Amino acid sequence: MKKKNAEFTDTQKAQIYMRDRATCAFSGRSLWNLDFGACPLSNEWDWADHIKPRSRNGKGKLDNGLCVSSLFNAKKRANGADTFSLLTDLRGKGQDAVPSKDHFEYFGIISSDWLSQLVRLRRIQEKDWFFNRAVCHMINACHISFHRLCRKRGPKYYRDSALKKFEAFRDKGGSRQDLEKRGLVQHPGREDVKILLAMIEEQKLSEFSDKLRRLKAIYAENARAMGSFWQAYSTGKLSRMQAQAVKINKNKHITPSVRAAVDSHVLFWKLGADRH
């Protein structure tokens, strides 16, 4: 039985997402999924985690919530002793999280990449949570279709749910132009990003379904590319990795995030894998 006042409302989830700069407080990962595009790297949801678990009478209040990825939320479960967090609401106003004491004492420096991420994502607003959740639902529909998963909630469920979330984003004044103005669209020329942004204004189910079909094709291309690269990676042979990396970088449907992931892993094997 769900405990009264223990669940976060959508409004509270949006407020926590904005306060924590669309960043996982446990891993530091960006949870602004438009940046990743239609690929498996985007299939990671933001989650409002209870600092004091519901099983221990934790309430659904903003000061008891953290923005975390679905992976880390599942790893923590009901462990109330796990209080390590990379972000904190230092001013106590529920508006602007900053790197925490835990981060300072564990990592020391703020890496240049994380600094850029936090500075850029301070432009996130409450309404953007609804857009991001819509993107998550669309990518999850692609994921289920690609892997042919048999689930109670299938692609149609997530398509319809995304449609509602895009509508909520519009109702709160959200638009493609507004996202672009605030610098939240990193790759405006990419086909998958164009499709996701076009969905904001789409209200016809038939047209929405057609856009989902196009996203599924792009997602599948990226998923296959990642799978092929990992097969090469698993051999531990740099030549095979490089051959796959060349194919990936020539494929116009591969997202920048997948290209960057592949290139960084190849670079590791060039520079740091061999101890001899």
Task: Give an account of the 3D structure.
With 276 residues, the chain is mostly helical. The chain has a domain at 10-122. The chain has helices at residues 10-19, 70-76, 101-106, 112-120, 128-147, 155-171, 176-181, 191-198, 205-234, 238-250, 256-271; strands at residues 46-50, 65-69, 87-88, 98-99. The protein has a two-stranded antiparallel sheet with strand order 1-2. Strands 3-4 form a two-stranded antiparallel sheet. Helix 5 crosses helix 9. The mean pLDDT is 91.
Concise account of the structure shown:
The protein has 276 residues and is mostly helical. It has 11 helices and 4 strands.
Distance between the termini: 58 Å
Coarse morphology: globular
Spatial arrangement of strands, main beta sheet: 1-2
Mean pLDDT: 91
Sheet of most strands: 2 strands, antiparallel
Sheet-strand content, in percent, reads: 5-15%
Order of helices and strands: HEEHEEHHHHHHHHH
Q: pLDDT below 50 for ≥5 consecutive residues: which ranges?
A: none
Structural class of the secondary elements? mainly alpha
- Integer-rounded radius of gyration: 20 Å
Give the number of DSSP strands: 4
User: How much helical structure, as a percent, in the residues?
Assistant: 40-55%
Report the total helices: 11
